[in-house]
Amino acid sequence: MFSTIADGFNMIWNVFKYIQINDILDIAILSFLIYHGIKLIRETRAQQLVKGIIVLVAAYMLAIFFNLQTMRFFMKACFEWGIVALLIVFQPELRRILEKVGRTKFTEINIFAGNEVEETTDKWKVCIDAVCDATTDLSSSCTGALIVCERKTKLGEQIDTGTILNCSPSAAVFGNIFFPNTPLHDGAVIIRDGIILAAGCFLPKPQKEELIAKQLGSRHRAAIGMSEISDAIVIVVSEETGTISVAENGELTRGFTKESLKKLLNSRLIPEKDTNNNKEHLAGRIISKWKK
Fold this sequence. Notes:
Elements: H1 2-17, H2 21-42, H3 46-65, H4 69-80, H5 82-89, H6 91-103, H7 117-140, E1 145-149, H8 156-159, E2 163-167, H9 171-177, E3 188-192, E4 195-201, H10 218-228, E5 233-237, E6 244-248, E7 251-254, H11 258-269, H12 272-291
Parallel strand pairs: 1-3
Antiparallel strand pairs: 1-5, 2-4, 3-4, 5-6, 6-7
Helix pairs in contact: 3-4, 7-9, 7-11
């Protein structure tokens, strides 16, 4: 056993012994490019396409392992044209990535950037209160509004169509954005990690627009379209009736109140870990009171 461990350490030492400065530099540059490539992909819907490609590669490996000749032939034929297909499918994303790389300054690059879950949770709690207060005020005055709460699917393509604000949410800010005849009131507000990232954004049309009720306006249709291609929660305030609606997974639910909207947003936007902690904290309080 000890000889096996010693042999393992010797192999590792032999590897490190022959590493040179150019090898370290090569690995560092490649790691840097892969990391920022993944970050750029996460900004678009290409993230879902990449997952699909990974599934196809895994299926191809399984076909080789189990010697499935038909499946192997079919998968090989698909991969032969894979590079061309990728260039066609990812053409908008590739163009956007190259443009973003060209605009990026070296001083803005942060290798160790990361998001703290607890900090994001606190921001979402403040944001949810602000959204609920704002939608209630906008509903009472029949002021139209369209608010998109980004989740796992990044909405970089839609954000690029609007004006970057990057500000803390509040009822006053939403009121100013959606005030009639202001420059940003017709577009959508996109919220990321509890922060208003952009306003005046254009959203995609629904895939089957002809099946949507005719009494629904452009805001409701845009909300449905956005929820069809992403996991975002889209909140709409009707300009005609003041009704608060929520679009999710391509379906529109109407007639929300401040309380029901807050309950929905908490369940969808607050991380599950934080929710479990709250439940455990509540259970602990109940047990302690019962013991008394």
